[in-house]
Design goal:
Mean pLDDT: 88
Structural class: alpha/beta
Shape: flat
Number of strands: 12
Distance between the termini: 38 Å
Helix content: 40-55%
Length: 304
């Protein structure tokens, strides 16, 4: 940032007031000082930010662009101040929660909306990362709780698991893509071996779970595209890029409207559990106790 924060605050105030005199009065500084700051800012940025007239000032196109970002920045600062006030209030708490981006969108959001409405005084820090990183940070006591999907691994004995629901891995593709495969003479039993398969990267626990399934069922994948997120897998499948490995519960609308079709498998993939994992302890924070009690009271989530 080439300018200090006060210069941008003066610019923001002038933009809100539409008048340099009114801005100066609001800022408790002189009008020449405001004008000088604006001129210096315009010179530094290499563009005109305001159009001057006898009735006041108005933003140029460049000024409107800058104001959009400056306003967002100061709104964020104001929000931070409010959160600090809540944090200092009696009964407030802070909870650090680790979760993958996929589970955050499709599972956690259901809980967060309701929880923050009931406990607005509790500050939440959501760290989106891999399940492996979430488990590691829980062991290192850098997180209070995590939301994970189980795979082909066992949890450390120091961690407790509160099951929320089960998920099922499936393979899907657009109908047009399957039609093209079958036009080339591909049988249903050979679809996975013949298609362009799309899966999460190899460090992902869900991917490792599927790799084990493929190996156990002697399914050899000739071509595999690694994709960074479940959302992209779903979207890529919908535009005929290949067959994607996804979670059934997360593509129910697409399966219902026919934009995606489930691929038949020689054997179903065993369902996995999703749940909150944490370190059980006698001196657990009040915020953690309230979050666990709240999640248990909700039961199984409905996917947004």
């Amino acid at each position: 940032m080439n300018q200090n924060l006060s210069s941008y605050y003066i610019f923001h105030t002038v933009a809100e007031c539409g008048n340099i005199s009114k801005a100066a009065a609001k800022l408790f500084i002189s009008q020449p000082a405001v004008s000088k700051t604006i001129q210096k800012l315009e010179s530094s940025l290499g563009c005109q930010l305001f159009l001057r007239s006898s009735r006041g000032v108005s933003l140029t196109e460049e000024g409107r662009l800058l104001q959009e970002h400056v306003k967002a920045a100061f709104d964020t600062l104001s929000l931070g101040e409010e959160k600090l006030k809540h944090a200092a209030a009696p009964g407030a708490g802070h909870l650090k929660l680790g979760v993958s981006s996929t589970l955050c969108r499709y599972v956690l959001l259901t809980y967060l909306k309701a929880f923050t409405q009931k406990y607005p005084q509790i500050n939440l820090s959501i760290i989106c990362q891999s399940t492996s990183d979430t488990l590691r940070l829980l062991q290192e006591e850098q997180l209070d709780i995590g939301l994970i999907g189980m795979g082909n691994y066992r949890l450390p004995h120091t961690l407790a698991f509160d099951r929320l629901c089960d998920i099922e891995d499936i393979f899907v593709a657009a109908g047009q893509y399957l039609y093209q495969l079958k036009q080339r003479g591909t049988k249903d039993s050979d679809l996975l071996q013949s298609c362009s398969l799309m899966m999460l990267d190899k460090n992902n626990i869900s991917r490792q779970y599927i790799d084990e399934y493929l190996q156990n069922n002697q399914i050899t994948v000739k071509e595999c595209m690694e994709v960074s997120s479940m959302d992209l897998l779903i979207e890529f499948a919908k535009i005929n890029l290949g067959v994607a490995c996804v979670i059934r519960q997360f593509v129910e609308p697409e399966l219902a409207d026919g934009s995606l079709v489930e691929i038949p498998l020689p054997a179903p993939i065993k369902k996995r559990s999703v749940g909150f994992v944490y370190r059980p302890r006698q001196n657990a924070s009040k915020a953690l106790e309230q979050f666990l009690a709240f999640s248990r009271s909700l039961g199984h989530p409905k996917h947004p």
